[in-house]
Amino acid sequence: MKVALYARVSTTDQHCEMQLAELREYAARRGWQVAGEYVDTGWSGAKRHRPELDRLMRDASEHRCDGILVWKLDRFGRSMLHLVEQLQALDSYGVRFIATTQAIDTDQANPTSRLLLHILAAVAEFEREIIRERVKAGLENAKRRGAAHGRPRRVFRRDEALELRQAGLGWGAISKRLGVPVSTVRDALAA
């Protein structure tokens, strides 16, 4: 059997090597050939499109592998809807999906693993929503305390920008002269 390995981490300072080492070992123990490794670094599992995941799904649709190995279900995705859609697509291509640390295998002969897969997908989405709620609560708490958040405001002489615009200068020339982006100048003068 030819398998593709998929690994993902959410931030660029994290590494996928541990996931990949375990996936390679898993495939080797079964005598499976690794058809390719697909690694997304710095991509949230909630993102529907990730460069390497998209390439993996294209390759699966072209039957370049018989199965896909992931370390854990949440490495593949955290959105229940997206996960179910991806797994249905893999099923239609005749490609197995295996989450090695969770004993999930979408092999047609294993209905118990299919049930577990849907349960774990719901848990992964629930976990993502809990994290989102915590971040939102933290931002609201910081706002109540008066902490600054968001992008810092650009400080520049709006009156000077207006004078330059009235003198006939273009947005780019005003932007360069004042040292702020064109969109900032344009937005300030529109207000």
Most strands sheet:
5 strands, mixed
- The beta-strand count equals 5
Average pLDDT level:
88
Strand content: 5-15%
* Large-scale geometry: elongated
Write the layout of secondary structure elements.
Layout: E1 2-9, H1 17-30, E2 33-41, H2 51-61, E3 67-70, H3 73-76, H4 80-93, E4 96-99, E5 104-105, H5 111-144, H6 158-166, H7 171-178, H8 182-190
Parallel strand pairs: 1-2, 1-3, 3-4
Antiparallel strand pairs: 4-5
Helix pairs in contact: 7-8
Question: What does this molecule look like?
Answer:
- This protein has eight helices and five strands.
- It is an alpha/beta fold and 191 residues long.
- The protein folds into two domains: 128 residues, Resolvase, N-terminal catalytic domain (Rossmann fold, 3-Layer(aba) Sandwich); 33 residues.
- Helix 7 packs across helix 8.
- The radius of gyration is 24 Å and the shape is elongated.
Summarize the structure.
This protein has 191 residues and is of the alpha/beta class. The protein is built from 8 helices and 5 strands, in the order βαβαβααββαααα. It folds into 2 domains: 2-129, Rossmann fold; 158-190.
Features of the shown structure:
alpha/beta; Rossmann fold; 2 domains; elongated; 5 strands; 54% helix
